[in-house]
Amino acid sequence: MAAEKLRDLSQPMDVSLLDATVAAFYGTGSKEEWHYADLSEKHYLVRLKCTVLGEALEDRRAAADHILRDLQNNPDMWLQVVHILSSTQSLNTKFFALQVLEGVIKYRWNALPVEQRDGMKNYISEVIVKLSSDEVSFRRERLYVNKLNIILVQILKHEWPARWTSFIPDLVAAAKTSETICENCMAILKLLSEEVFDFSRGEMTQQKIKELKQSLNRIYISITTGLYFSIPSRGLLDEGTVLMCYTLEKLLNLYAAPAYRNLTLQCLTEIAALSFGDFYNAQYVNMYSIFMVQLQNILPSHTNFLEAYANGTSEEQAFIQNLALYFTSFYKAHIRVLESSQENKNLLLVGLEYLINISYVDDTEVFKVCLDYWNYLVLELFEAHHNMDSPAGNMGFQMPMLSGVAEGLGSQLMQRRQLFAAPMSKLRQLMICRMAKPEEVLIVEDENGNIVRETMKDNDVLVQYKIMRETLIYLANLDHEDTEKQMLRKLSKQLNGEDWTWNNLNTLCWAIGSISGSMGEEQENRFLVMVIRDLLNLCEITKGKDNKAVIASNIMYVVGQYPRFLRAHWKFLKTVVNKLFEFMHETHPGVQDMACDTFLKIVQKCKRKFVLVQVGENEPFVSELLTTLPATIADLEPHQIHSFYESVGNMIQAESDPDKRTEYLQRLMELPNQKWAEIIGQARQSVDFLKDPDVIRAVLNILQTNTCVANSLGTYFLTQISLIFLDMLNVYRMYSELISTSIAQGGPYASKTSIVKLLRSVKRETLKLIETFLDKAEDQQHIGKQFVPPMMDPVLGDYARNLPDARESEVLSLFATIINKYKGAMLEDVPKIFEAVFQCTLEMITKNFEDYPEHRLKFFSLLRAIATHCFPALIRLSSEQLKLVMDSIIWAFRHTERNIAETGLNLLLEMLKNFQASEFCNQFYRTYFLTIEQEIFAVLTDTFHKPGFKLHVLVLQNLFCLVESSMLTEPLWDASTVPYPYPNNGMFIREYTIKLLSTSFPNMIAAEVTQFVNGLFEARADLSSFKNHIRDFLVQSKEFSAQDNKDLYAEEAAAQRERERERMLSIPGLIAPNEIQDEMVDS
């Protein structure tokens, strides 16, 4: 058969058969082409299902795909590449052959004999020179030449500079022979520099990247000089300025013609974005000047761009968008040049005026283009302004003789600030008018003009808000007075009705909220007094339910952003909170949710204020609130009541007097406790009462309320949970029995019925309440002794007895929390925990990687807590039980779910450290060292487990440090199976690792593997070097080549994010006060 003939690579391939196969795969051949061969190939054509009768294209493609894959996977196929390229005329076949060759270059190049490597690189070079030496063939075969260039660059990454020292001289010599060869040489150099400088991370080893960068930098001058003098028409380049002027003149003339205006503007934008240092500054200024004169004739600066865009044709709209791109590109590259003379400054201001007006256009893409530049510009201006107060100190001037230089610099910065003052003022107005909606605002206007509750977050809007907020923060820091004046002027127009619309009020208030923290405290106080007063007045005088909902939303957003102001002004704080209580009775969609969210946010930052008796008050606000609590929450939904109770819990937590705190807690929990007592009383008379769905919902609601308060109060919640604890466990046991009975009778589907789901919700909330309290409570042993023993049978025993579908994963997280909290005090209870959950949970989660996802993560979290705090309990396990533990840990870090794999790796690290410090160190490592090393290398080199790279490295470092230390006093090898007596464990592990990796990576030569393993031992003491050495190996092995390798650099990325956060914290307001986790002073 012809297919088998193709697969037989012991003789030169029949290229015409390969052409037909490739054509069948791409579906490009005609029926005649399928039948190109003589009758002896008939069976092959049948195989391809390409007979005259014509089967489906997909069948033909599948058959061809199968053959091509077989050829591609054949390790000897690359030897046919030269023959194929020399014989075929099909571009697709050439690309297939080059794809085969590229795979060999990436994965097996260094393992090839020198003669084969030299032969291939010489052949590729010759084909490139041949095709690019002739203008006609170069243009005709451009795609083919480009692919050959890529192949050559892949070879260069291995060969140059060490093994192909003559490459650059050869390149320059070839470039001197013709213009087209020179052009292609430039393309090769561009590809090479991009590979080295832009795409090298994760593709090459650190040393190779460094070597190539140094080589390229070193020979840059000789390359440019050689290629410059190689161009026959270099006289034009000698007159480069003339050429550029001529080009710009022609483009600007075409720009005046409407038919070519958009295309010309796109060309000018590309030119404007280029930067050649100072050489062409005069030409750029001239280009900008002529452009601005022509633009003002076409479209005067006073044009209303908002209306022009809305009413314009598609060509006119494209012109406005291209105009925005032109201005932003030009200013990013050349704005400093325009600041050099007064005439240029005037034109710059006119251009900025245009860009500000374009920014009002109601088109998301146009606005994004403008916003990106405004953010860039104001950041540059702010950074200069930020350093202006002490330029000498900031720039390292320390000698008195340089003070004049510092003064001169300060003067320049001041002049620049004055130059941009007017445009920045207009930009503030723009940002205020177009401010995007923050995440906290839940009330929006729908497409029908109705005010509704937001149902889904718009991520694009949130990203836009983040950029606009940052831009406005910089603008506010540049001129606080102008920012305040513009906002208050716009607010007064809302109050007098001159500029009243929902959108205008929204954007203004979102802007006011976004600059929180940017002003000094005194200015912020003055500003907020006027803002909140005017907004409250606006709410009073405005009629209409929707109008009031919009104003309420804005009041809540603004006050929630300024906790510092509220803490300093009790009367305003009290007024605002009472206003929130009013909004809690407003049934308009979203208002009550936002009122409860804002109340919680304010209380968390100002809680101390509510438990003090303020001037002019008879009692603390919290006492007054508790008196009126039933009326305040009367109109709230259950989830809103839970939020309200959490807020009040935060107030009570701030009370320092234990007696008052207990009294406040009793008053707060009076309503849920009455309902609880009523339900338990009825249940004592008839247990069936607890089976009523409404009663189950009431129990769930009471438990959720308790959980929210426990979350706020922590240890101080002890009196309340003690009151309901035992009854709660009885309800838990009863509901658990009901669930098990339902599932046993109804099968797996019973767990999905509404009643079983409701019962399980009560069980989960019970566990969550206990876990929340114990987690938040201070580390007091008597609390653990009081609450843990009564739970052993109702909770742990119930978990063991239940059917798998009835087991709650929260049991595992509860006992993980208990062990993390009470540590060694739980040592005696670990065997009971182990017996109840270990075997039965493993049976649930080891059948596959999908079932019971919550149980998986929480099970390994529990194991980690035991390993960390109760390690002696693990030592007491039998060898079979310990093996089960280790197998489960290995199973965990093999998991493709990131959280589970990371938990397994952290657990493994805990186990390794604890066993190293124990008397069983030798016994443990003799049993598990080789298994752990083998499994870690397996996941390390598996691309599905890249996120665990940091922990893989830590485990390996731990193992290699241990084997070279004195901790292991017995051999790791089995003397009965290893005849050679190694001098020490280090030598044995060195040889074992070399064999392991050589087997796993046959594409790497023995010397490379040996060098890597030796490097691991040498770098074991330095984590950074050890990590980089492993990164290089992963690239060298080609397991991670040509993939997204950002997970290998996750630590560096995290460090970069931390540096960025520190920078943002240094700028007033850039991180909102509510986002700063540190407890704000509240006295």
TrEMBL record:
GO terms for molecular function: nuclear export signal receptor activity; small GTPase binding. SMART domains: CRM1_C, IBN_N. Its main location: nucleus. It is found in: Nucleus membrane; Nucleus, Nuclear pore complex. InterPro entries: ARM-like (IPR011989), ARM-type_fold (IPR016024), CRM1_repeat (IPR041123), Exp1_repeat_2 (IPR041235), Exportin-1/Importin-b-like (IPR013598), Importin-beta_N (IPR001494), XPO1/5 (IPR045065), XPO1_C_dom (IPR014877). It holds the Pfam family CRM1_repeat_3. PROSITE patterns: IMPORTIN_B_NT. Keywords: mRNA transport, Nuclear pore complex, Nucleus, Protein transport, Translocation, Transport. One of its GO terms (cellular component) is cytoplasm. Residues 64-130 form the Importin N-terminal domain. Transmembrane segments: none annotated. It is a peripheral membrane protein. One of its GO terms (biological process) is ribosomal small subunit export from nucleus. PANTHER family: EXPORTIN 1/5, EXPORTIN-1. Belongs to the exportin family. This is Importin N-terminal domain-containing protein.
